[in-house]
Amino acid sequence: MIKLHWQFVFLATVVLYVLIILTLPFSPIYATLFLFTLIGFWSRLPGVGIYHPLWILYNMDLVDIFVLIMAVNGYVFEAVLASIFMNLYSRACGVFPVWGPVIHDAIAMSVVSLVISPIHVFLGSNILVTMAVFTILRACIWPLFATFTYNVGIVRYVIEWVVSVITLLFINGVYVQFFGSFFSKLLDRGVAFSWPLFIFATIVIALAYILMYANSEKKPKLPKVFNKIAKPKHKQVTVERKPMEKVY
Hints:
- The chain has helices spanning 6-23, 28-49, 63-72, 76-92, 99-122, 127-141, 146-149, 154-185, 195-214, 224-230.
- By secondary structure, the protein is mainly alpha-helical.
- The chain has one domain.
- α4 runs antiparallel to α5 (99-122).
- The longest helix is centred in the last third of the chain and has 32 residues, at 154-185.
- The N and C termini lie far apart (75 Å).
- The model is unreliable at 225-239 (pLDDT under 50).
């Protein structure tokens, strides 16, 4: 069963859609950044709502590629904020994994986002190579927090670290190979907002919501005000009856 706090999911989704609509007339670039954040956030939800060994589902999200695309296109501050939001708030919407690794992964991704842009230029602006460096640098920061966030032996930790890095390199490499250039071009100056991507993402989010909500362990409760509207309470009218007079 999927375990998600749907109230938090709804809140983030509505806020991001509103931000996309509000910023679209003034800055298609920022509308696109909010769209990337929305897609990345939803891509993380299966990983935080379903228990899985070795973080397989957790590593299959689109958070890495969107953070990288933002950073290498000059939106470093926005990439850091998006990284923090997509890592931490998505975890607040679910129950897996434990908070410690999630927090230090958000820190690691944010730190790498600050330095990846000049590295990208140095590597000849090869997005595939840059993603590999991004993934490795991020993974190299993880051990700095191992003492505080892991309660396992060194052998098990090393095995999990190696498996995670190999998995991330493969998954991120596939995403960049197929979608890297497309996403990067959406942030070019003067490029219009991608309505096809917006519509496609909305359809995918709607389908994901239907699928995950139907298999959710706990359905969100409507606020009391909606319950009152849906089920109005009828006041019980009591009629005071006078005692019958005795007939003599």
